[in-house]
Amino acid sequence: MMHENRLTQAKSSIYPAVLALLLSWPAAAWTDETATVAPPEAPSLGQIQLDREMGQFSVPGRFLERGPDQGRDLLEYLAVKRNGYKAYEAVLELDTTATEFNLACILIGLDPDNATLPEYHFDPRPVQGDPVDIHVEWDADGTLHRARAAELILMNGKPVDDHGWVYTGSTFIEPGNIYLAEQSGTLIGFVHDADSIIEHRHGIALNAPQAPSVNRALMPPPQTPIRVIIRNPAETAGQDDAAPSATLAD
């Protein structure tokens, strides 16, 4: 019952938050004339760049520092917001707030009404939600590298090959109408945490004897700039994979 109440709270609370953010956008980014037609230049939400025609958005960030011991990675999240509380359990830090990130998800067509949240942390049951494609880009020695998000995580020494990410939207709690993704800083998780905005449908390493670790062979040095691309495949059926982003910042 508590889970159902939390989910209802999330769905009833997210739309006022979305409306408030839309109203705060500069007129150049969102006007009556552009409400149904994308503007010539992709609008932005903070550091997030939206491409509604492609059904995707990109957000800059960086690889977080991990120690040399894979056995102590303690991973539960792919990405957290800037200075997110759970950064010590994440691979990536993104230059956005949870509220902006969630709004961007909604603006590319991901629907919180299709989501079912995990009932508790590490809930082994699959979570439901609109499918999401996630890619990570970075520059190394002048070469643009691109990987599917799950490939940054190792299970039993091998990159994860299950790319079943779904939009769950996080949730709100009372008192205070607190958005849990903003409070914890969790954007993309894989251990079925209701705070996350995007989760892994089946979870990674749930009830596994060995914890997941960072794919150090693939990752560049800590603090290397990245760009994460979030794509709604339902909006781009029949098109090529997510378009590469603009050149990464130095």
TrEMBL record:
Domain of life: Bacteria
Signal peptide: 1-29
Keywords: Signal
InterPro entries from the UniProt entry: YdjY-like
NCBIfam families assigned: ydjY_domain
Name of the protein: Secreted protein
Species: Halochromatium glycolicum
